Amino acid sequence: MLGExxxxxxxxxxxxxxxxxxxxxxxxxxVARHMSIIELTPGDILFHEADKGNFVCFIxxxxxxxxxxxxxxGHEAMLARLTVGQSIGEMSIVDDAPRSATAQVCTxxxxxxxxxxxxxxxxxxxxxxxxxxxxxxxxLLSANLRETSRxxxxxxxxxx
Length: 160
Prior knowledge:
By secondary structure, the chain is an alpha+beta fold.
């Protein structure tokens, strides 16, 4: 839970997050001023697949399931369970595409959120900080793509 100084709690949390690990505490203060806090309960839906995406979330407490509907037969598949320190929705502050999956809350959850408009504001007003955030997002998305490729290879028949 948040202490008496929510901004300080946010800064402390982000010190070790991949997207923000190249920033100093003064830069993190700028980002923290643009963050919002959301508390959710088990069963809540943070967002649905195909919703318009306009914020990224960082899990400070709790767990979220990432669920994707299969195009072939419509069944739902759980892609991942996200826990403290992980994020979801990074793509939505970079592009204008709809959400690629549904995020459902598993346990009492506390999220730090950054809206696309707040991110755009940081990019315009604090370009060095925005560039560091973009690089952090690119590193995270690259790592996620590498992991997805690795997992996908397990399901593809071998080349003969």
